[in-house]
Amino acid sequence: MRSVYKANTHVPYVRCAVESGTEVGSVRDEEKMNTKFKDPEFLTQFIQKYREMRNLWEVKHPQYYIKQVRKSTLERLLAFVQTFIPEATMEILEKKIGILRNMYRREHNKIQISLRSGASADDVYRPRLWYFKKLRFLDDQTEARESLSTLPSTPAEADEDQPGTSILEEPDVTIWSQVNYF
């Protein structure tokens, strides 16, 4: 007789112990929080607050790299979030910001790829995120930095900068004929 194990796909809750051992979280609480966070009214206000706090997203902002200032700004943003979602924590807030930025970056990249492919105006990718336009302030923050090439741009520059033989020249065959094998 053969036994077949079927996983229970419906789990009402999963308990997870926190370091102190006294707090117990549940999947249902997390799902409720995600649902609240996805609410269009809340998310619109959240994006607006995030946009006002330039030192959290603007790389050239003078306070972008100062950890204490960033932390205090994040705490203010967390206080705003906790008015709607009381169980929100700093870790959840940072994760949600990362998710929003990542989703925006993905949609932005899809648009850029479709533009580079030579697609007609009708075939250019249209973002599916309803809040995509609200995150447009991140455009210049998501652009890839210009790379610096160490290779010469023309063969003439290669001759000037790199003394010695070119890759295109014939190799000296006599060197290979002098190899002794055991």
TrEMBL record:
<dbReference type="InterPro" id="IPR006578">
    <property type="entry name" value="MADF-dom"/>
</dbReference>
<protein>
    <recommendedName>
        <fullName>MADF domain-containing protein</fullName>
    </recommendedName>
</protein>
<feature type="region of interest" description="Disordered">
    <location>
        <begin position="147"/>
        <end position="167"/>
    </location>
</feature>
<dbReference type="Pfam" id="PF10545">
    <property type="entry name" value="MADF_DNA_bdg"/>
</dbReference>
<feature type="domain" description="MADF">
    <location>
        <begin position="45"/>
        <end position="143"/>
    </location>
</feature>
